[in-house]
Batch of 2 targets.
Target 1
Amino acid sequence: MGTVSETTRQRLVAQGFELNDDEINMFNYWLRIAPATCMLWVATSLVLGSPLMMAVLIPVALLCFALARHPFDAIYNYGLRYFVGGEKLPEYGAPRRFMCLMASVIVAAIAVSFAFDFFTIGYVLGSSMVAMLLLNVITGKCGPCTIYNRVVGPVYQKA
């Protein structure tokens, strides 16, 4: 397998994953399925202006926080991994679980905004969320995980 860049390693460490080079090569892009699915869900909800569709995402994000696995990881864990010969995705560390908790709060705010016809607030919050998720999907950098690490301190440090 190819070598792992220090940037890629740091971005995964910032999310609470402690992986060796082989695991990083195996999981780096697959760990972006859940953020990509959420991004598409939020974007579709924004286009439709649907508070109900947005509200359905709240328990999904809360499950991710509570269970240390994202429900959308099942797409890979119980399907795609058998085609690519991979292992199950690792459990989420505290920074990524924090991200899911933050997402549930923001999604709830968007749903409430839409339900009470505060569409501007809903669209601003929703567009910001789509942008943050897109950043994670494209680069592997997670804004809420960075906040977590700045406030709480780094989860893992190099020896």
Note: DSSP finds eight helices and no strands in the chain.
Target 2
Amino acid sequence: MKTERSEVILAGSGGQGLVVSGMMLAEAAILEGKNVVQTVSYGIATRGGFSMSGVIIDREEIIFQEVQDADLILALTEEAMEKFRSLVGPKTEIYYDTTLLKERKGEHLYGYPFTEMAERLGHVGMANIIALGCMAQRNGMVTPSSLAEVIRKRFSGNTLQMNLKALDEGKALSAR
């Protein structure tokens, strides 16, 4: 479902790396020559409180800077799923973490064990990277190679290798 414009919501709780994920997604889009707006919202208690990043990617100029018609939603907590489920349109894809949320059935719902997979890789904090890889591979909002380039710029050493592995794991999930 590759389109010229993507409106993305990444939501969960503080500490899950959603703000960083939004920044990385935005940077990958910029590398591809696209226009981007990224917004964040988080509760008073950053770690553990509600956290959200909105990203709009477009080839055209972006006039209104908040997500209005989400194409993709990543929900990493039940609170996030309930909050944004009402924004779902007929084309909205919802990705959620089956490690942390109850299983759901329905069209355009994609449940994957992001946190469980990250734990197996050695750090639960990489669930966000696995999710980004899966969404990018499946949807085409940005290319996984652009995300890999951003990861190479942001990380080094063992952390770099772990994040690239997490991205690859996410890409492989999209085939399921």
Note: The first strand starts at residue 6 and ends at 13.
